[in-house]
Amino acid sequence: MSMFASSPPIEISELVPIRDLILEQTGMFFEEKKFYFIEKRVQKRMQATNSTSVREYYRLLKLGGGDEIGQLIEELTTNETYFYRNIPQLQSFAEEALQLLVEEKRKAGDYRLRIWSAACSSGEEPYTLVMLIKEHLHDFARWKLEVVGTDIDTKIIAKAQMATYDERSVKDVPPVVLNKYFENQGGRHRVRPEVTNLVQFHHLNLMDRYAMRRMQGFDFAFCRNVLIYFDEDSRKKVVNGIYDALNPGGFIFLGHSESVGKLSGAFKLVKFQKSLSYRK
Known about the structure:
- There is one protein chain.
- The chain is α/β, with parallel strands linked by helices.
- It folds into 2 domains: 12-76, no CATH class; 87-279, Rossmann fold.
- The chain has helices at 12-26, 35-49, 54-63, 68-76, 87-108, 124-136, 154-162, 175-181, 193-196, 209-213, 232-245, and strands spanning 112-118, 144-151, 164-165, 182-185, 188-191, 199-203, 218-223, 246-254, 268-271, 276-279.
- The termini are far apart.
């Protein structure tokens, strides 16, 4: 039986320092109404580290013993994702934004295309982007494509690199795409090398300004359903970092409930037929 099964709830006052440390380290901000979410995961990590009190566990986080802050962050980051998520937005990317940008590049004789999938989780998004590009560029063979997936969770990156998924992850993949780019392995679906070879995965904390400065030369950035976890100041820092990472004319795609409107006036709003984007 869990040592916390009959334990009283953790006091809000005890969780505040942990919440603030998470904010400092990652930019993720949890309001008090979401403390239940932190509480369950703190309890789980307390059990794993044999911490007898919240105060003791907080000291462990501060000291950095065994990268415990990283372990807690892995528990806190939500990794619910799947292939071809938000199809209308992906159609806007593949049928409009991509065509617009690659036509400009063709005229300039530039056949390099770089895409960043920020907070890529278990890899469904960057692999989806490769499949879309392969399907929508008639001269794909001429292009040098590089897709970079980054996430703060090192375990989820390892899962992304394995590129093997269950039925739920591929539920929205068109059958023709599923047959073309996946291998069926006993009920599991493995992405074929012609896709995985075009994707690189790296650990990245979006609040690490030094690491963010190394992210350069991208034509598209996808940062979907990420900003909702950040406070206002952190959102601005992330959006500014992505702006700096984009080439002139580059696009950023956000989650359907997210906007850079109040965060940065440097981007130009672009209205596509089925969704919105922002252009540098």
